[in-house]
Amino acid sequence: xxxxxxxxxxxxLAVCSAFALTACGQKEEPKAAAPAAAPAPxxxxxxxxxxxxxxPMTGPxxxxxKDNENGARLAxxxxxAKGLEIGGAKVKFELLGEDDQADPKxxxxxxxxxxxxxVNGVIGHLNSGxxxxxxxxxADAGIPQxxxxxxxxxxxxxxFATAFxxxxxxxxQGKALGEFASKQGVKTVAIVDDRxxxxxxxxxxxxxxxxxxxxxxVASEYTNDKAxxxxxxxxKIKSTKADLVFYGGMDAQGGPMVKQMxxxxxxxxxxxGDGVCTPEFMKLGGDASEGNFCSLPGMPLEKLAxxxxxxxxxxxxxxxxxxxxxxxxxxAVMVMAEAMKRANSVEPAKYLPEVGKxxxxxxxxxxxxxxxxxxxxGAISLYQYKGGKLDYVETLGGGAVATAKAxxxxxxAxxxxxxxxxxEAAKEVxxxxxxxxxxxxxxxxxxxxxxxxxxxxxxxGAADAAKAAVDKK
Amino acid sequence: MEILxxxxxxxxxxxxxxxxxxxxxxxxxxxxxxxxxxxxxxxxIGTLVTISVAGLLLKLGLPxxxxxxxxxxxxxxxxxxxxxxxxxxxYRPLRNAPRLTPLITAIGMSIxxxxxxxxVWGRNYLTFxxxxxxxxxxxxxxxxxxxxxxxxxxxxLTMAGLLVLIYRTRLGMAMRATSQNPQVASLMGVxxxxxxxxxxxxxxxxxxxxxxxxxxxxxxxxxQMGFMLGLKAFTAAVLGGIGNLAGAMAGGVLLGIIxxxxxxxxxxxxxxxxxxxxxxxxAFIVLIGVLMFRPSxxxxxxxxxxx
Amino acid sequence: MAKWLNPRSALGLALxxxxxxxxxxxAALGGQAWVRIVNFAIxxxxxxxxxxxVVGFAGLLDLGYIAFYAxxxxxxxxxxxxxxGLHLPFWAILPIGAxxxxxxxxxxxxxxxxxxxxxxxxxxxxxxxxxRIFLNNLNAPVNITNGAQGVTLIDxxxxxxxxxxxxxxxxxxxxxxxxxxxxxxxxxxxLVIVINLRLQHSRIGRAWQAIREDEIAAKAIGINTRNIxxxxxxxxxxxxxxxxxxxxxxxxxxxPESFSLIESVMVLAMVVLGGMGHIPGVILGAxxxxxxxxxxxxxxxxxxxxxxxxxxxxxxxxxxxIFGLALVLVMRWKPAGLWPSPERRRELAETRAxxx
Lengths: 473, 307, 356
Hints:
Shape of chain B: globular
CATH class of the largest domain in chain A: Alpha Beta
Largest sheet of chain B: 2 strands, antiparallel
Oligomer: heterotrimer
Radius of gyration of chain A: 26 Å
Distance between the termini of chain B: 47 Å
């Protein structure tokens, strides 16, 4: 019985080994070609910079993956149109897109592919579950990676010098949500999470922040990301008479959850993170979602200086609406390109230190990294479900920085008027100060606005604040 | 006290849904000793067909009761055809194959059905049209809805109907004969193929009814909804003793109540160590416990060695 | 054993060896990613062979096999990562993982000894879920597994300063990280295959077969069915544990989502599709089911592009559709698997003939 397979394998193997032999002969070729493909020294007039991008392009999140890729593509085309020069050579950027299917295993396989292709940097991945295992490979290869959508804090906590993200992480979001809850006059909260990395992480941060703000957590309940029935845990929450139910999880569970809260006669309000801040949530939750709150990282595009312009360019280029993260991906590419320019090199090892020193006034925010590679101050915006729409409520954490320009403009107008009324001297100071503030963006804005608001002493306050800004500079 | 009552109601309703789906598993298993792993997907197809048909009719301006009825009928018809097709294409050719073969086929069919459903209805969650009455009642501090009452009634009636079918009709007698010994039954003039096909068709019709109940209760549907539901229902069927109709009913209700009480009380009883995050495993732990002492489930007969 | 010295067999073996050595370099021509895919295929060969002991040899239907893989993966992750600050070498951890997985195998086996067929299937399925849910939740009150966040920064396999994660020069040849893992995996896989082959024809193997065919008869001829069944669970589980440890080291990150029920089902599908109880068949099943989806992934989209001029159906959904259909069709025409053992094929033909 053992002979049959062996015979079979004999002939099959002969063929295989023939392949192997020819293959071995060729093996030297790519090796020789490799240095040529890598960014060559400045001798050549034009060099190609390969930027890798990985996101699920097929499967349930394909629409988000496509959106991400479009965001990055738009940035690449803008850069090419600008005709950047780095290290004395003209630079042409090229996007290498890969499909990681939102699967951790697949994530490492495509990461390997990008490394094989000798990319100069990587933008992505979309999900934290794929970003984290892939980040190890990029770190080992020394390739800078900037994600525009992976929000799990672990990604940057691993201590890799190559890992960055241009979006607020779950810690920052959970913190803002907790602050918001306490501002709503809530005293007791019940926390539910779906036991996924995202839901659990967000709920834990919310708990910390809520407790720090003096709220009492009266119930901690759990469900999973496939559940449809929440009556058992909601009944328990009902018995604790909590003022607010916080949910760390996605819309497919959150929607039915608010509905079942209503059916059980629970009066508590509902609050959730970006997972439930979707039109889908309102569709599934129906009337029950009305009047409740949720948050999204960043600021609404309309509120940002460059937001509307980006939106227009995007829809013109791709004939599609922005789904979610495209602006962040755009910024990620820009941050990378700027770092290359500052380092005057496209070599990963040379420009990597510059990425950390980024100070980029992007579409989504003023991007500055902390020592881990996280955004220094991630803005979180809160929304209310109203009449089947998301109504912008306010922005917490880092908002001052992100909107600095717009607010300074407001301040300018107000200060100018007030200054006129008081006198020439004050006006001079204020103007100077405001100008400085506008340039420095980084500071002064909040202070200037506050100063203006304080009424009668407006001018004096603004002048002081402006002066402070000048001094700082 | 009212909380306990509320939890019992939650469990009873959830359990009735499990029971309704479990009847479909047990029906097929009782006759041919086969786990139809694709049954959860039949339920899913039932829900999605109702959404399409009832949703369309409502849009055309038909009254709610009519649209809902038509949706239900359409779902039952489609699922019966599907059940018949499954048996004919996937299971009949394998009747004498090794035992694990039809299991893999069933898994394959379940993957196929899910993906076909995804291509037809898309990946997004769908909302179920409001075809069920919206009334809400209060009883001793516990609240429940008309849909919940309907679910409990429908599953009790269905089980009663099945019992009548099995023990009071010719087809039922043929089914019992086939389940005991197909060869002998066919010698006695029973058309075994037809009886088995009937079991699949009836089981799938029940699946469609279950699908409509699930849809109108949660008002949400998705191409992957059948998998978890099928798994829980199958657990319920095994708990009660697979192949036994009353057992499936009892197992379903028991499972629902265990889950509700487990999620509601275990956390407090264990000082927060085991909370509702272990909700899904209470059922399995009880199942393992029961099977250790009664290897054929609560009401099951001792099965022969057919592995 | 003399058969092995036969010159033709020796030539065959030499050729197999040559192909196995050349494979990672050939695959690398298409990029290191393909070496990674080959590595995952070998990892699944591991798993399928482990499950084959339980399902194929002893005839015990196990739907929770991935739990042992998870145990092995987490043992490695916890003992070689900054999570607990432990960094034990792999040759210490892999045996620990195997022993612990083996313990879990016995823990699963002992309460379920009386169960047969489908009852056993649902209990093992439940067991798999229980393990996964515990891994997902054991971050409080004491943080053991770090919950759904998973464990990061797991050490790669290393011998002294020789790390398996990075490329290095060996005899003037550049050997990449994945290629090193490949040779490590192949060496282990060969060991596992030899163990399996020897087991199959040993006293124990025949006892398993006896239980599979007729448990009562097996008992009657004096086989201690209880111990022999437990042994099957324990052996299968320890192979799963080793595979899990290597998975951990290769990925550098584990989280409970890698150990869902569908993985158990996939491994079972490999065993049954290839040919239960027949080692070459099981290997074929594992390789086919890991490589086929990859080939479909790179084939389905472009083929549609060529035939219809655009991509009509999302490759991912079509891929799963084809996969499901393949399971159904193979079982329809080859109920004993693609490459069943000759005895099994004969039995099946006989029963068919009887029925006719």
